[in-house]
Write a structure and sequence with these properties.
The chain is of the alpha/beta class. Helix content is 29%, strand content 22%. It contains twelve helices and 15 strands. It has an eight-stranded mixed β-sheet with strand order 7-8-9-6-10-11-5-12, sandwiched between helices. A three-stranded mixed β-sheet has the order 4-3-15. It has a two-stranded antiparallel ribbon with strand order 1-2. A hairpin with a 7-residue loop joins strand 13 and strand 14. It is globular and about 80 Å long.
Length: 340
Amino acid sequence: MVLWETAGQWWCKTPACAQRQVAHALGAETSKDKTRRFLYVPTPKQVEFDECSARHVLYGGAAGPGKSHAGRWSIYRRCILIPGFEALILRETFGELERTHMRDAAGEYQLLGATFTPSKFEMRFPKTGSLIEFGHMQDAKAVKRYLSSEYDAILADEGSQYPPDPLLELSTRARTSKQAVRDAGDSKFWVVSNPGGPSSSTLLDFFIDHAPDFDKYPQLREDYQAEEWVYIPGTLDDNPYISERYARALAVNPKWRYEQLRYGDWRVFSGQFFSQWNTRVHLASLEPSPDGQWFRSLDWGRNQPWCVLWLAPPAPLKMSATPVRTLDSDGLSQPAMLTI
């Protein structure tokens, strides 16, 4: 995806893509002189996350695509556009919550026309009556409090670090009876996370492989719907705002952790027996061959290691005769606007 930067924001070069960014952006207009500016313009990958119609969404994988930022601002936008919208933003521990979303909210709430009360862990939007509650999963008492409520959206930040069963039960509290929320896409349970924590295998099963453990969750044999559990992979390459030095800094990690954080690989872990396995190297997504024919070649390996090759004729390249037209910033429509 080729992007260009203007006035501190990164935009797609094609009109359709840029208009999608605008549709999910948030802007502000001063009441005094009517000056307009963008507060938040999502990257194309962040747009994909925000507009996903599925109820359960896992976004991220790699470190650095802007997943936490996208989750919080997607909730801000709904609080501004949907009257009475109620959301919960979570981190694993209280300390992590303070250092991330609470700290960011303290610097953002005035831009949004909201009030922020750190002692109550909440942000309120007086014009719409919307509410954001900030919380953590550090102890059973805290978790129990969330399980006794319902929310129009739940953002489980770094959800792979939560215990699996409380995380899944938490997803059932993303529910709504508000018609305005239903009209805007219904309730959402969002997990934004890197792999590597206690819930990694659970997230892999539910969101990526679409193969939950039916022995552990027998009721899901009839109720699990794969289209409602969507994975949106994100990498450093999706985020033009982040420094290239960040990618180099990740290289100090062990190989398995580097693959998790740099490339979002959910299938590697510490102590893995076949540590040479690399999803990026050993797996490939192929277009179907024109005639649907596949070929298999086998070497029994009596004197050398055995090998089985699966081969298919390549699909023809798809060419487009439509020229790519760049978009002038003056041609953009307006985002959702706040008056400040």
